[in-house]
Amino acid sequence: MKILVPVKRVVDYNVKVRVKSDGSGVDIANVKMSMNPFDEIAVEEAVRLKEAGVATEVIAVSCGATQCQETLRTALAIGADRAILVESGEELQPLAVAKLLKALVDKEQPQLVILGKQAIDDDSNQTGQMLAALAGLPQATFASKVVVADGQAQVTREVDGGLETLALNLPAVITTDLRLNEPRYVTLPNIMKAKKKPLETVTPEALGVDVAPRLKTLKVSEPAKRSAGVKVPDVATLVDKLKNEAKVL
Ligand code: AMP
């Protein structure tokens, strides 16, 4: 059983992003980039399924600039077997990525596609859902537990007020939530091994996909600054201010 894992190269979650002065987007020049954290969880889950003897091959895919090769090498170091870069210099919006992934699903015929639930740069939370729709596959989003057996995936999802468990016939699309697993640390020997694993490059044109953007960003702005707090000398003053100034008591 093959598992396809799409991994996105995003601004590292530790970086405080700055909005460009013209409000056209955020500045990503000279900023540390990493694999989207939910995608690390997706790779880890796929590799665990392989280690458990459920999967036979894990294929990592990234769509974007040449530098996405670094992200793919990280996926290979976690334990993916091979990687595909869909190289494009254009901005790739979620619909375009979903179409590219659909083309790869047709080509590779994986039994499972495990994506992150959202990319921390655009927070779209769209790609997995759109891929499932385009490919006509069942989907379970926000997975906190995945069990694969007898041609089915049982997926537990954290929903308001409890847990929901779904059974999906394979092939299927799953997106990962934070508590699905804790990704392993990538070791140096595995980084070295990853350099020798196959990494194929294809283009959107070769996959027959039009990746032209469908959405236009009108404006990006900084969140409002928090106003400074005040120190009060004692509890009585605090209660007085809450009653008479903030009027919350
Ligand atoms: P989004 O819909 O943009 O929030 O992204 C959801 C998930 O889709 C991510 O966690 C990735 O698994 C996948 N994805 C989105 N963009 C890309 C990309 N450019 N390359 C590979 N995978 C992607």
UniProtKB/TrEMBL annotation:
Family to which the UniProt record says this protein belongs: Belongs to the ETF beta-subunit/FixA family.
Record's protein name: Electron transfer flavoprotein subunit beta
Superkingdom per UniProt: Bacteria
Domain named Electron transfer flavoprotein alpha/beta-subunit N-terminal: residues: 23-211
InterPro entries linked to this entry: ET-Flavoprotein_bsu_CS, ETF_a/b_N, ETF_b, ETF_beta_N, Rossmann-like_a/b/a_fold
Keyword Iron: no
PANTHER family reported for this sequence: ELECTRON TRANSFER FLAVOPROTEIN BETA-SUBUNIT (PTHR21294), ELECTRON TRANSFER FLAVOPROTEIN SUBUNIT BETA (PTHR21294:SF8)
Listed Pfam families: ETF
Keyword Transport belongs to the record: yes
GO molecular function per UniProt: electron transfer activity
A GO biological process held by the record: carboxylic acid catabolic process
Signal peptide bounds: none
Function according to Swiss-Prot or TrEMBL: The electron transfer flavoprotein serves as a specific electron acceptor for other dehydrogenases. It transfers the electrons to the main respiratory chain via ETF-ubiquinone oxidoreductase (ETF dehydrogenase).
PROSITE patterns in the record: ETF_BETA
Keywords: Electron transport, Transport
Cofactors: AMP
Assembly and interaction partners: Heterodimer of an alpha and a beta subunit.
